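Researcher: Structure for this, please.
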Amino acid sequence: MAALIEDVLAEAERSIHVEKPLELLLDLGNLTAVDINPLKAASLRQNPEQFLRSLARDNTQLLLNAVWQLPSERLEQTIVAKLPQPSTPIPREKALPKPRPLTRWEEFAKLKGIQKRKKSGLVWDNEKQEWRRRWGYKRANDQTKDWVIEVPESADPNEDQFAKRRTAKKERVAKNELNRLRNIARAQKSKIPGEGLAPTSQPSKAELSKAIRVAKTSTASVGKFQAKLPKEKEQRNTGKKRKFQPLIGDFSAERQKQLELLNIMTSKKPKLDLTRAVNRQLREDEQEQAAKRRKMQPKGSKGGKGHNRNRGRGQDRKSAMKQRGNRK
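Model: Predicted structure, token format:
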């Protein structure tokens, strides 16, 4: 038993230690190994698969031996080795990303030498006598919380200063958004929109018709009292407006409708369409009369065609109508 254990340990020792005439070129940062030793041509020709497997196993063993020599640490019940920086340059699959183009303000600041300074997020509020945020909720010197505004001497005394302040803020927000869209268009090398965001191409007839229809139906009366343009055609295929039953009012119509629906669902007999049944019976009678005439007509005669035949059909129809009246 002791001899068997010694043989196993010796085999394990031989499998761990691999000898090479020339040392491998190791790049532990990329976990790669380059074998510069010449191949054994005889072993390769004799059994190529076994030779390549053995070569790959030996080189992997040498790479792992080098990894175990690196400084390591225990992380979540596992031993992790600290790999060094890679030494083999590996080419990129894709090209380097292009730098973001400068905005108009960044170009102006670069031209004038303006340095960007980081502002503090808190400022002193003289009214509240405390430090508050520069922007956002509960910011310092918030003018929207003023309950009274002083009217300037050059302004109209009847003008609403609160509405004027709100309008000015909306205009600033819209201007900033327009500048943002312009920067995106410049970065993508597309056409920069103008002040009014006018269309860049000539609209088609369908687009103009749709714009007119949308503008008309945007009124309070949904276009009911909107005047028509000269030579304007009636709009078609605009959809039907849904009709709903009144929520409050006479429930007799709704009750009658529900009873009719219940009768249709519970009735076992199919609904009889009297007009369709009568028309079907008349067609069957006409077919029977025509078949009898064809049987009674002698072969080779042409009397069944033309005016006489139509006249006979008229008489047959009259007789069928009389039968219908008698049946009623």
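Researcher: Any notable elements?
Model: Strands lie at 25-27, 32-34, 72-75, 78-81, 122-125, 130-133. Residues 2-81 form one domain.
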